[in-house]
Amino acid sequence: MQIVQTSSSSGVNAKGAGTARVVDDASAAVKGGTSARSDAPAARSSTASLQRGLSNWDHQLQGEISNAQQTLDYLDRSSSQLQALKSELAAKLAARQGREGQVEARVRQFSNTWRQRASASGGTLDAQLSYTSPQAAQQNFSIRGLTMASLQEGPQEVLAFSVGGANQALRSVNIEPGLSQSEIVSRFDRALMPSGIGVKLGQNGELVFSTSEAAWANVRDSLSVRGSGIRYPTGQMSRVRTDAEPAAIAPEEWNTGDTEALRATLQQVVQALAQLQAARSSVSLALAQATGRVARAQPVQVHVSMDTLAENFMEKARQPGYESLLAISSALVGISRERVVALLGLD
Q: What Å distances lie between residue 124 and 70, 129, 171, CA to CA?
């Protein structure tokens, strides 16, 4: 594995080069240090197990470090554009002559950058600027007609949900009188989880549904429900109407037509800058935690595993018979008189 080192505004080598290389070096040390003994059955088993663990650990951490650095670069670029827009707005409001159309151009520039949020962050920064790596960013939404009050009132009913069309499996939720809010949330969450939809209780006691941003368009356009005519009168499978949680920043609503609109836009830009800074702090913390795990955990894993290999060798060497001879001869493979003399000659 090779990691190309490039500059990053976060101050950490891009793609985790500086820290992820610790993983590579450690893995190489284990491979090199045990190659001469790999013919011994116990050593071969321990080495293979360790290398599998290092490989899985390496890939996961590299992904997290890469996502964090990619997201930090995006947040820095977005903040820089908003700072420039803020300066243009302030200058125009102060009646200082600026280039014609510059404010509008800055708004368009940031709008384009905001639309690139999902791809620019590797799908780990959601529309509320919450960083979710290693999980994918989520889209929260509500379903019209499914309120906590309507679910806690009325007679028993079984609601069957479908995502993706009529050929998809139905997910049923049994609603009955006397259920608490947590019981209702739990039933919906268990039923809809196989369809990639999570359910939680909102701050105001409402049902909040969520799915990955990548799956949101399909869920929005195909989610259907069938009841027994109580909460959904037709009693037939019918498409439900969903409302997506609004994004934290809405540049498409920024107006620059007059002085009042400029003031309102300036206030929204200042708020957006604060949100971006808060998101950056969160991502920086995630990056520090990921790189810290590389620095702390990996040397310990290698040290413990090398001790295990040494103990296995000593145990085999003490035992008479073929396995003892095999362990010793395997360890001595590649050791020549010249190498020994060269090592003894080192200061």
A: 10, 9, 28
